[in-house]
Design a protein that fits this description.
CATH topology: Ribosomal Protein S5, domain 2
Number of helices: 3
Low-confidence stretches: none
Number of strands: 4
Largest sheet: 4 strands, mixed
Helix content: 25-40%
Strand content: 15-25%
Order of helices and strands: HEEEHEH
Distance between the termini: 19 Å
CATH class: Alpha Beta
Structural class: alpha+beta
Shape: globular
Strand order of the largest sheet: 1-2-4-3
């Protein structure tokens, strides 16, 4: 589970990331990145639209993305707000696939340090 200080929960925070952030995408997920001034604080927000399916499907998608972010959190350098959006194929994806795609997007955004490789 992501610690409370690493969660982006308010809609104003989501709007800021959507409006001023940069986006990166794979088949499974879309990542929006917004640099934050000062500090070493990283916050993640997660979104899964109704096109994915019912509540059970959407919650599973968000759970997969949240756990992937938790696993990669120590390797993110700098201070950023992220919003991770699920795409339809994530409903059939395994946890390892979600982590791999999230890592790929973080590397593409230039925020992944890679220290402490598994």
């Amino acid at each position: 589970m992501l610690p409370p200080h690493a969660r982006l929960t308010q809609s104003s925070g989501f709007r800021a990331v959507y409006g001023r952030g940069r986006s990166y995408a794979t088949d499974l997920i879309v990542l929006y990145v917004l640099p934050r001034p000062g500090g070493d604080r990283v916050r993640f927000g997660f979104s899964a639209g109704k096109k994915l399916g019912g509540a059970v499907v959407r919650n599973r998608a968000k759970r997969l993305m949240r756990e992937g972010a938790r696993a990669l959190l120590p390797r993110i350098s700098g201070s950023y707000d992220f919003v991770v959006i699920a795409r339809k194929p994530v409903t059939d994806a395994a946890y390892a696939d979600v982590v791999k795609d999230l890592r790929k997007l973080l590397e593409r955004a230039g925020v992944f340090t890679g220290a402490g490789e598994n």
